[in-house]
Amino acid sequence: MAYVIGVDVGGTFTDAVLDDNAGTVLAAKAPSTPPDYSQGVIDVLDVLAEQLGCPVEEMLANTHHIAHGTTSSLNALVMGNVPPVGFLTTKGHRDSIYIMNVEGRYLGSSPEQLQNVMGQSKSHGLVPKKHALEVTERLDRDGNVVVALDEDSAREAIHALVDDGVSGIAVSLLWSFRNPAHEQRIRELVHEIDPTMFVSLSSEVSPRIREFARNATTIMSTQIGPGLRDYLGELESKLRDRKLAGPLLVMQSNGGAVAAAEAPKNAISTVGSVLTGGVVGAVSLGTQLGHRNIIATDVGGTTFLVGLVVDGEPVRASSTIINHHPINVPTLEVHAIGSGGGAIAWVDQGGNLQIGPHSAQAVPGPACYGQGGTEPTNADANLVLGILPERGLLGGRKPLDKELAREAIRTRIAEPLGLSIEDAAAAIYAVQNAQTGDLLRKTVVEAGHDPRDFVLYAFGGAGPAHCAAYAREVGVREVVVPLGQVASAFSAYGLASSNIVLAAELSDPAAMPLDPVRAERNFDQLEQQVRAALDRQGLKFTGVEVEREIDMRYTMQLAEVATPVPAGSLDAEGVARASDLFEQRYAELYGQDSGFREAGIQAITYRVRVTGVLPFSPTLPELKSADSADASAAKIGTRKVCLDGRIGYTDTDVYDYSTLLAGHVLQGPAIVEVPTTTVVVPHETTGTVDRLGNLNIVAQ
């Protein structure tokens, strides 16, 4: 029997899902273990093996592959916890990363931050100026050599960086995406001086026009590359010692995996890898349930994540923003705020209750964990409100202390606001639901979609406790809580469902209509790159799918729209169809008649994405059907629960999920206890168990 395992390493918990493609699906959860997150991976695999009833060595020996997702790269960049790196660029262009194309003052800012002009700054440079050095060379816009590379000046700069103890060197020269020869030669010079030095080239990491974004992408990839290389190397060594037979794969932000040995070469592609796992899982589950428009929401221990699936496909983006820097990395579009189950509640100077963005994380954790934490969190409020069971999480393996939760809320929230402990806990619950609802509104409504056309999927350890409330905030009527064997490990299920996805891109700006020969040459070059990379993955695929697209814009605009280009030979008619499709997508994004064809259309960047389809497609097994809708046999008791501060505590039926059957119906208010999560069915809603064991919550 062969298994596939998905492992999702979060800031608080590490989740895993095992599937044998024959109906067996197991899920496990273990605390994350910072700073050595690899130990948490080993711990959760041990739990899986225990459930499977065999030694972990036997399980891993029969594992086809492990798909691993981690937030460590993203967290390192966001918190600035990265080693010193060097930056080499064309003479006269060093300060582009400090000027930041003016964008550095506002990229990624909230509307409130944008209005606070006096509070804006560009004090977030990626590297100190002593580590940003120039080399003499110059290419023109067509990639022709205007000034040859001065190798002596390059060696001098490299020696200065190596002597100063940098962990890696980012090389980003002007117009190198049209001709990478100078960058490639500099890498050779670096390795002549220090053969072990980690080097990233912009012509490989981000061969895209626009200097600031290309520089920032290459530098950030260099900042996390050495750490990712060391972490994956250590983890893979531990797994091999435990007899792992198949490869270790790493999830990328584009929704697909890549071999662990390949991931550090383009480390920036793994940023947000865990964030996309839930969206991939939503696509897989949506296929089984017949849902094509899905809002995927994940409330983990640290963050609240939202992604969209529209007409059966995840919404994609060609770039993202990290710490006010534009990053060129194809990604599934996922929005996040620091509002997870471990998000800390606090009172600001104006006497307003705030939730997050800081989290108690796994260590020390919420106050109720009894591990030394003193800050009140969402988890503490949920325990005081009766939502969480006093016996603890993970079926009692993670005990909770209600008195510690009450004390944290009393001292930090209740007394400063003049509230009772119970009212303060209810306020925390309400603010959490309101601000997660705000992110949903931003993600769905501001993208031009009607939330009423979507089904909301809710997962993560804390998601099922809040989902019905934040769905109501935006008018979504139907909520699906994926339970069965995956429950709060749904992102890990998405990782197990993922295929190998690789992408290559190249900027070659030109006015439409394009020369079909030129366009076809670019696509052929990129397809050769991704197919060669696919061969290096060391896996056998049941099929290979190729997608092509061009980032296009109206002349003089700064932002492009990714426009699909059909496979096959590209002729003048195909180029014309691409222009028409660009205008159609532009109108969908920005409104009918918002385009201006008379300005002309430009093709900027070509992109090829290839998917290697793996021989595993996890599907959730069907649940035994109930004889009637009456779920009273699964009821395990009643407890006082407060789901609405205006109503207060009410007697609420509590159900054991393990005894629920397909077709059982629960009338709210109700609580469903699952070993890895807790589901809230609020007042004026109905919960129905579907054929896969998911709980569908529908507003009455």
UniProtKB/TrEMBL annotation:
<dbReference type="InterPro" id="IPR002821">
    <property type="entry name" value="Hydantoinase_A"/>
</dbReference>
<dbReference type="GO" id="GO:0005829">
    <property type="term" value="C:cytosol"/>
</dbReference>
<dbReference type="Pfam" id="PF01968">
    <property type="entry name" value="Hydantoinase_A"/>
</dbReference>
<dbReference type="Pfam" id="PF19278">
    <property type="entry name" value="Hydant_A_C"/>
</dbReference>
<dbReference type="InterPro" id="IPR008040">
    <property type="entry name" value="Hydant_A_N"/>
</dbReference>
<dbReference type="GO" id="GO:0006749">
    <property type="term" value="P:glutathione metabolic process"/>
</dbReference>
<dbReference type="Pfam" id="PF05378">
    <property type="entry name" value="Hydant_A_N"/>
</dbReference>
<feature type="domain" description="Acetophenone carboxylase-like C-terminal">
    <location>
        <begin position="521"/>
        <end position="691"/>
    </location>
</feature>
<feature type="domain" description="Hydantoinase A/oxoprolinase">
    <location>
        <begin position="214"/>
        <end position="500"/>
    </location>
</feature>
<dbReference type="InterPro" id="IPR049517">
    <property type="entry name" value="ACX-like_C"/>
</dbReference>
<dbReference type="InterPro" id="IPR045079">
    <property type="entry name" value="Oxoprolinase-like"/>
</dbReference>
<feature type="domain" description="Hydantoinase/oxoprolinase N-terminal">
    <location>
        <begin position="5"/>
        <end position="193"/>
    </location>
</feature>
<protein>
    <submittedName>
        <fullName>N-methylhydantoinase A</fullName>
    </submittedName>
</protein>
<dbReference type="InterPro" id="IPR043129">
    <property type="entry name" value="ATPase_NBD"/>
</dbReference>
<dbReference type="GO" id="GO:0017168">
    <property type="term" value="F:5-oxoprolinase (ATP-hydrolyzing) activity"/>
</dbReference>
